[in-house]
Each structure stands twice: as C-alpha cells, then as structure tokens.
Write a structure and sequence with these properties.
Elements lengths: L1 H19 L16 H57 L2 E5 L12 H15 L7 E4 L5 E8 L5 H4 L8 H10 L13 E9 L2
Antiparallel strand pairs: 1-4, 2-3, 3-4
Helix pairs in contact: 1-2, 2-5
Length: 202
C-alpha cells in the first residue's frame, strides 16, 4: 500500500514537472533577464534533464527506505542522505543541484531572496488555478539558474501535513528530534513546497 501511494506521488510529480516545463509556455525572468535565446533554450533543456534525473534518483532511494522501514526510516534517510545524493548529481552534471523552500526543514535548504521571488511568481500561478511554470534567470553574478516547482501531493502530507493529524505522533517526534527548527509542516495538497534550483556556473 505504501509503495502504491508513493508511486502515485511520483506520477503526480513527474506530470507536474513535465507540464510545468511545457515548451509552449515561456518562462519569466526573476532576478535578471537572459537576452540570448539559444542560451535560454540550452540551459532550460539541461535544467529539465537534471531535475528529472535528480528526482528519479532521490525518489527511488526514498521509496526503498519507506519499503524497508516506513516513514520513520525515510525521515532518517532524508536527514543523512538527501543532500549528499543531490550533491552526487551535481558532480555528475557539473551544476549545483538544490531543493529550497521558504518553509525549510533542513537549514541548508533555506530559500534566498531570489528564490523567494521565484516562489512568489509560482504561488501566484497556483492562486490563479494554473500549474506553475519553470523559469530560468541570471543571478547577476554571471550564473544561470533553472528553477522548477515542487508541489505537495497527498503522500507528502505524512511528513509535511498537519502535525498529529496527517503526521503520526511518533513521526512528528522524530522530525522535531532530527530538525529542531523545522518549518516544513501544515501543508495541504496542491500547495507549493519549494523549488528545484539548478545553478550553472559560467
């Protein structure tokens, strides 16, 4: 049952990523515009690929953790292995790979001011009943950044929903133990959880 729920979650997110990355929808610039169309297309395509492969690697490892020890085991996996796993994808593709949020669980995933601008744009799309689009922008230091939305699906609520309601008491206690400053709760299905942030250093 857990595997089926998680597979539904993976399907939802994959559809979200690919619809959000629909080529017919033009991304908007956040911190700074990119004037070169060929660069925009190149890095947008590379960003899509890196997000898809990073998500695939992370979700596969997380599903294995859930199957072997339930949500509590998955929480411990995320605490120890999520960032090293995305770091390994960064080395593979030669770009910085991060997941960031305005309501971060891990302090290392706290959104910057530029990230918050992107999330505001994506949140506005959600409020208009639209799926938020991906975006690519110049961070004004010479780097190009690709960002794709992370949207809450029903299975996410077991770790990010209402405390002691959707999140089991034992799992909530473990979250508070692993992440004393956790902010990543009280979400509902369809809410923006954060963004995948791929930085191409030039």
């Amino acid at each position: 049952m857990k595997a089926k729920l998680f597979n539904l979650y993976l399907t939802f997110l994959l559809v979200s990523v690919w619809v959000a990355c629909e080529p017919a929808r033009q991304p908007q610039a956040a911190a700074g515009p990119i004037d070169n169309d060929s660069l925009l297309i190149k890095y947008r395509q590379e960003g899509k690929l890196i997000v898809a492969e990073s998500f695939k690697a992370l979700s596969k490892a997380l599903l294995t953790a859930i199957d072997s020890g339930g949500v509590s085991h998955a929480l411990q996996f995320c605490n120890l292995q999520a960032i090293p796993l995305t770091d390994s994808m960064a080395r593979l593709y030669g770009a910085e790979v991060r997941r960031v949020s305005n309501k971060n669980r891990n302090p290392a995933n706290k959104a910057s001011e530029d990230d918050l601008e992107i999330m505001t744009m994506m949140q506005q799309a959600i409020e208009k009943s639209k799926l938020p689009s991906d975006t690519i922008f110049d961070d004004k230091t010479g780097n190009l950044i690709y960002a794709a939305p992370i949207v809450i699906a029903p299975p996410c609520l077991r770790c990010h929903g209402m405390p002691e309601n959707e999140i089991a008491a034992g799992d909530l206690q473990l979250i508070r133990s692993l992440y004393p400053d956790d902010k990543a709760v009280d979400y509902q299905t369809g809410m923006l959880r954060g963004i995948w942030k791929i930085t191409f250093k030039r």
